[in-house]
Amino acid sequence: MTKSVHHWIGGKTVEGTSGNWGPVTDPATGAVTTQVALASVEEVDAAVAAAKDAFATWGNSSLAQRTTILFKFRALLDANRDAIAELIVAEHGKVHSDALGEVARGLEIVDLACGITTQLKGELSTQVSNRVDVASIRQPVGVVAGITPFNFPAMVPMWMFPIAIATGNTFILKPSEKDPSPSLKIAELLAEAGLPDGVFNVVHGDKVAVDRLLEHPDVSAVSFVGSTPIARYIHTTASANGKRVQALGGAKNHMLVLPDADLDAAADAAVSAAYGSAGERCMAISAVVAVGAIGDELVQKIRERAEKIKIGPGNDPTSEMGPLITAVHRDKVASYVHGAADEGCEVVLDGSAYTYEGAGHENGHWIGLSLLDHVPTSAKAYQDEIFGPVLCVLRAETYEEGLALINASPFGNGTAIFTRDGGAARRFQLEVQAGMVGVNVPIPVPVGYHSFGGWKDSLFGDHHIYGNDGIHFYTRGKVVTTRWPDPADGPTGVDLGFPRNH
Ligand code: NAD
After folding, report:
1. What is the pLDDT of residue 502?
2. Mean pLDDT (whole number) for 263-288
3. Which residues cross the membrane (predicted)?
4. 227 CB under 6 A from ligand 1?
5. Which ligand 1 atom is the nearest neighbour of the CA of 178?
6. At residue 434, does pLDDT exceed 80?
7. 392 in catalytic set
8. Which of 19, 153, 393, 396 is the most buried (most CB within 10 A)?
9. Is 223's C-beta closer than 6 angstroms to any atom of ligand 1?
């Protein structure tokens, strides 16, 4: 063990006292490099108490104070892109350039939060009745919690806390215990930017910490991003405890390729979106649906490109794809490839036995790229979210058949259509059952000022994350009706009738 990761509560590091620790592994070597403190109920309670204390003043802080701090934080984040990316690479395993992309997309939400002043202006109607004005305002909800997955240890927390704190809430982050360090770097930068103690807290932990956040009476809202079974559990439990909740789950994202598409561009996009970050992205394309007679040519083009991808440690600038998060996950991903032929798939590329040869990396969580063709919808490789570098290709005779196949999936996160036909693309936008649609764009992650979220089993709750939905989620509405009577109006008098506007 070279390093211990502790909690961040009330503006400082607080050592874990539960006696429970989780191992953090360098995926490229398989070595346990770090131990992370797993919070007890009492430690979560301490973080909630710190956040509640801080809310008493932060909830009433001026917009000028909040945005001054957020602009400073943005500058610090910008200056520390590489440092954060290095922490991501060391614990997640993705390649450095990909980690920088994650930081850049998180920074977009900080940009949105820096401009919160225009979003919180509210609405005013004057003279709705005689001498009566009505104002709608939005106020923070209080202490809010964010529970985040391993695959974007910097970006996903940044989908949440910049908006939560800009709108006047205080925040408790429970990051993934698999790659906890980037969250602490972010906490330090927020403190350096001048954020008051207790406004942003980090508790590390597992189910014990999560369950305490879900039941704690002083937590008003919970944002969750992770797998579908846990998202469903979080939504049910937090809702039953009276909390506002948004819970984003897993995915199986389809790319529909029509016969008129530019097949080279479609193959480039499929390979980038399926194998980037070793497939450990909730917006990864994991199923390509080839329509009409183009299937064989498209698969050939995908294969040629996939065979050239260079796999290696994330800190080697020549690597394009890194290892998977854990050895257990690597073995699970490989099992889908091993079972594919028996389930009726044609195994075009089998990367399950790949291992990186570099010295010291023998025990890394390596896996190569796999490509399965003619995948039946009954195959487990199609039905499950594999979350690894395995791309399934399915065949459909027509647009309608392809669309029906996509819409039958229980997931509805992202999807894409590749075509030169504007009419078909327009139909697809309107007819597909998914929250985010790309037209010749394989990973349609919305920019920060639009909202991110899926449909069906990919999101539980009625708010998408960040953008206007995020601002709504972290604020509650209040409507103020005001009359300033004028003596010239004469006496008001008693009237038991329901008030009407004149
Ligand atoms: P996960 O569901 O295992 O863990 C997510 C969080 O929940 C972690 O903080 C973890 O500690 C906690 N957790 C795990 N098990 C729990 C339990 N039984 N009770 C309470 N809390 C628990 O997800 P992961 O493996 O870290 O991340 C990968 C998953 O996240 C994939 O399914 C991926 O699609 C999904 N994801 C979705 C989005 C999206 O926007 N929809 C974005 C990123 C990742």
Report:
1. 83
2. 98
3. none
4. yes
5. 26
6. yes
7. no
8. 153
9. no
For ligand 1, say whether the CB of 43 is within 6 Å of any of its atoms: no
| 397 CA → ligand 1 middle, Å | 36
Query: Does 384 sit in the ligand 1 pocket, CB within 6 Å?
Result: no
* C-beta of residue 392 within 8 angstroms of C-beta of residue 287: yes
Distance 177 CA to ligand 1 centre (A): 11
What is the set of domains in the chain, with CATH numbers?
3-249+458-479 (3.40.605.10), 253-439 (3.40.309.10)
437 C-alpha to ligand 1 centroid (Å): 23
Give the number of other CB atoms < 10 A from CB of residue 187.
23
1 falls in which pLDDT band (50, 70, 90)? low
Ligand 1: residue whose CA is nearest its atom 17: 207
What pLDDT score does 492 carry? Answer: 87
Atom index in ligand 1 nearest the CA of residue 206 equals: 11
Count other C-beta atoms under 10 Å from residue 262's C-beta. 14
Mean pLDDT, rounded, for 133-145:
98
Q: Is the pLDDT of residue 420 over 60?
A: yes
Decide if pLDDT at 221 tops 70.
yes
Give the pLDDT band of residue 2 (cuts 50, 70, 90): confident
Two tokens at 193?
A: 């930017």
In ligand 1, which atom is closest to the CA atom of 159? Answer: 40
Model confidence at 137: pLDDT above 70: yes
| Residues forming beta bridges with residue 438, ordered by sequence position | 416
> Catalytic one among 114, 282, 345, 392?
282
Q: Give the count of beta carbons closer than 10 Å to the beta carbon of residue 498.
A: 5
The amino acid occupying position 82 is: D
Cβ–ligand 1 distance for 210 under 6 Å, the answer yes
What is residue 226's predicted lDDT score, i.e. its pLDDT?
98
Neighbouring residues of 223: CB distance < 8 A, sequence distance ≥ 6: 144, 145, 146, 147, 159, 160, 164, 245, 246, 247, 465, 473
Count of residues in the chain: 502
Residue 38 Cβ < 6 Å to ligand 1: no
- CA 316 to CA 17: how far, in whole Å? 37
